[in-house]
């Protein structure tokens, strides 16, 4: 397979994502779920998501679990700051001997961001249940995260926006 991220961006018709990287929604369940606050959401949604070394996924938080599935490219590190403030990582990739996994879960209410540390790109899919809704999506600035955990300053400066982008 190709090692060119442009091939995948063009072939899959991916668009820039507000958190970084490129995406395209590929599934939205026709079944719905009513949230505790009365909103109706799809039972699940799924996207293709491509990150490059230069274009990581910035720190953000969802109110639902997100499952990640590795497809193509280089290993991807998902950095998680759990609600208790602890930091954890998971490496998505094809090499089990190096501790990489083909799928992983980011628990609801976990602040997380992802990056390709070695190589050019990673092509993954992400599935959210109940389905993704921008109303449940929270991006973070460096200042916000440094106030929560200054020990992660180098990582926060790499994976959090200095100023949030316009949507």
What features would you describe in this structure?
- The structure is a single chain.
- By secondary structure, the chain is mainly beta.
- It has a single domain, classed as Jelly Rolls (Sandwich), CATH 2.60.120.
- It has three helices and 13 strands, in the order αβββββββββββββαα.
- Strands 1-2-5-12-7-10 form a six-stranded antiparallel β-sheet.
- The chain is globular, with a radius of gyration of 16 Å.
Count of distinct strands: 13
> CATH superfamily, please?
Jelly Rolls
Compressed to H and E, one letter per element, the order equals HEEEEEEEEEEEEEHH
The average pLDDT score comes to 94
- Helix percentage range: 10-25%
Shape assignment = globular
Rounded to the nearest angstrom, the distance between the terminal CA atoms is: 34 Å
Overall SS class: mainly beta
Rg result: 16 Å
Q: Work out the helix count.
A: 3
Main sheet characteristics: 6 strands, antiparallel
Poorly predicted ranges (pLDDT <50, ≥5 residues)? none
- Going across the major beta sheet, what is the strand order? 1-2-5-12-7-10
CATH architecture title: Sandwich
Quote the CATH topology.
Answer: Jelly Rolls
Number of domains: 1
| Percent range for β-strand residues | 35-45%
CATH class assignment: Mainly Beta
In brief, what are we looking at here?
The protein has 167 residues and is mainly β.
